[in-house]
Write a structure and sequence with these properties.
The protein is of the alpha/beta class and 334 residues long. It is built from nine helices and 15 strands. Helices cover 26% and strands 28% of the residues. β9, α4 and β10 form a beta-alpha-beta unit. α1 packs across α9, α2 packs across α3 and α2 packs across α7. The chain is globular, with a radius of gyration of 20 Å. Bound molecules: NADPH dihydro-nicotinamide-adenine-dinucleotide phosphate.
Length: 334
Amino acid sequence: MPEDFRCYLVTREGDRVTAGITRRPMSELPTGDVLIRVQFSSVNYKDAMAATGNPGVARKLPHVPGIDAAGVVVESTRADLPVGTEVVVTGRELGVERWGGWAEYLRIPGEWALRRPQALTLEDAMTIGTAGFTAAQCLLAVRSHGVRPPDGDIVVTGATGGVGSLAVKLFASQGYRVVAVSGKADKHEWLRQLGAAEVIDRSAVLDSSSRPLLSARWAGAVDTVGGAMLASVVKGTLHRGCVAACGVVGGPELPLNVYPFILRGVTLAGIDSAWCPEDRRRVIWELLSTSWKPNDLAVQRTVVDLDQVADVVPKILAGEVSGRTVVRVATEND
Ligand code: NDP
């Protein structure tokens, strides 16, 4: 075992947060019964927040971001996870309370590790990552509220983002007619390739009036944006429709009143992936690696090395990234 490991570390110097690639001694890794040699991680919006020292995500500094990781067990005290097992880790405290996947090594409680599903490579699993897991939770929520493909359109906001693009693909693959909402005029064709039947600009959905209800257009929704966009979607949802709310890139406030709920019976389903119960988590990964497995994952990913994530962070915070960014942590010599 090496004495130290390479990682992307966020630190504080006085009032200033700085971040970059460095080496840290193995002894600084947190306790846990499984040590993983990380092969791939990914860049989520939450990671970009952690990478800039946002205290709501990076609870204490110094910190290593990375809410997703995939790699190989190199030390273990658990019989169910022997050395050599390939594993995928997403959510819980990873990359938030605990140092995450933007590092060559990761030590975690073994129950956080999922054996790599047979049908997915580690790189595919990280292309899906928390984003795909969240999109799948949205699909489960919409379906469990009884919304079926013949009921009407599913709107996906922030459609070119990690969660959004995988939601477009997932709902389309399950027979829904997906309307993708995006601020990127140059990505409409790409969204159609993913399965969107229609692509519209944000301004066509965003309503800044104080009207309590809008003309009803959506049987269901995946909202990755929050704020006024989420409110607009809820106000425009059909009778008995379901809106799965998972994001906050457009702000945390929700300018709504109760009328969509009491006059149209709209359901607002909250989606929380970090602490999704274990049994449901396993069911979702099973679906994502079998009947819900997204095809052509390569179309949706950009692969960068660990020393390139610093360039991705400001772009994802500015809403400029499309699809999933997978981080190749292991180097050619590994
Ligand atoms: P990305 O940055 O990949 O995608 C966000 C997308 O939202 C952008 O690509 C852009 O898409 C759109 N967007 C960005 N800024 C704005 C804005 N001001 N107004 C409207 N649209 C905007 O992020 P992720 O997919 O990783 O995450 C999306 C959201 O979901 C984040 O808030 C994240 O924290 C949350 N999330 C929540 C989870 C949960 O468990 N609840 C789990 C995972 C993510 P376009 O240009 O196409 O409009």
